[in-house]
Amino acid sequence: MVLPDRIETEEALENVLSEPSDADIGCIRRLNGDILILGAAGKMGPSLARRTHRAMKRAGGRHRVLAASRFSSHAVRSGLEMDGMETLVCDLLDPVQIAALPRVPNVLFLAGRKFGTLDRTDLTWATNTVVPARVAEHFHQSRMVVFSTGNVYPLVDAQSRGSKETDVPGPVGEYAQSCLGRERVIEFVSHELAMPALIFRLNYAVDLRYGTLVDLAQKVYTGMPIDLTMGFFNAIWQGDANSYALRGLELCSSPPTILNVTGPERISVREMAEWFGTVFERRPRFVGTEGPVALLSDSSRCLAVLGEPAVPLTLLCRWVAHWVQIGGALLNKPTHFEVTDGRF
């Protein structure tokens, strides 16, 4: 696919997000069986489902791409069905509904809870630990890519490349702790029942409607203060994260493979804000100074195995800037990447 210089509409955005790469299509040709996406109505689910379905069609495969979620939004469900996917309504907090899900060879597990963590810590822990334990037991004969987060790592030297997969976790706050809990129950099922899995530590995906770069661009554009305490961060185009997730099905193993997923750059909050300020002709408002530590992930292993992102950071930044300038739709779900105490 030839990447556009600008993205003007949500329809165009979905098309770019969902366009499979040659590597995606090749992966589908090598996989055998249906693919189930759990949590298919979330931020990444719809575009991942569409990308997978398109790759299946272009590979000439006859297997199904199934999208499961509570589907609180009828529009999301009907949109996926119109595009040719089969949808399944399932509340993963209900073990009876999990037990009714069809067992398929390939599972992409996206479901989780971050926002509102402090309001219902019990619900956060149940969603991020009890649910994946039940899901893994039900699908223990399947390959499973399990979404996690770079938040399971401690804050590291802000001048470093970031945490590696071999580093000891050190989650800060209950959200991050519950995400490590999710990883541990997946590891347990993988060890006990030989389930092949990949733990997908994502940090941070950017869709033009949300993401670290969108948060920062919005603050510059509207004149909101920008906290420099967390002075550096990572980002990756959501379409590239989708591609890595799909292709991660071929990397599943027992015990689970762990993979940091993000772009190769250590992005400076100050420098990025100043770049957006130049584009918008508005001076960023900074608060505080850069701290000595940051939440950073080293994605060298991912890039070596699955290749460089198709969308480079320079192009992604131009897309974000233009989207903000034209008043493109937003999900109004800030990443809170500037948070240093783990309280989301």
Short structural description:
The chain has about 350 residues and is α/β, with parallel strands linked by helices. The chain contains twelve helices and 15 strands.
Provide structural commentary.
Helix 6 (121-138) links the parallel strand 4 (106-109) and strand 5. The mean pLDDT is 95. The protein is globular. The chain has helices spanning 10-18, 22-30, 45-58, 74-82, 95-99, 121-138, 174-193, 212-222, 238-247, 269-280, 300-306, 313-325; strands spanning 35-38, 65-69, 86-89, 106-109, 143-149, 156-157, 197-202, 205-206, 225-227, 232-233, 236-237, 257-261, 267-268, 285-287, 293-294. 40% of the residues lie in helices and 15% in strands. The strands form 5 sheets. It has a 7-stranded parallel sheet, sandwiched between helices. A two-stranded antiparallel ribbon has the order 6-15. The chain is α/β, with parallel strands linked by helices.
Topology:
Elements: H1 10-18, H2 22-30, E1 35-38, H3 45-58, E2 65-69, H4 74-82, E3 86-89, H5 95-99, E4 106-109, H6 121-138, E5 143-149, E6 156-157, H7 174-193, E7 197-202, E8 205-206, H8 212-222, E9 225-227, E10 232-233, E11 236-237, H9 238-247, E12 257-261, E13 267-268, H10 269-280, E14 285-287, E15 293-294, H11 300-306, H12 313-325
Parallel strand pairs: 1-2, 1-4, 2-3, 4-5, 5-7, 7-12, 8-11, 9-14
Antiparallel strand pairs: 6-15, 10-13
Helix pairs in contact: 1-3, 2-3, 3-9, 6-7, 8-10, 8-12
Rg (C-alpha, Å): 19 Å
Sheet with the most strands, sense and barrel status: 7 strands, parallel
Mean pLDDT: 95
Distance between the termini: 37 Å
Shape: globular
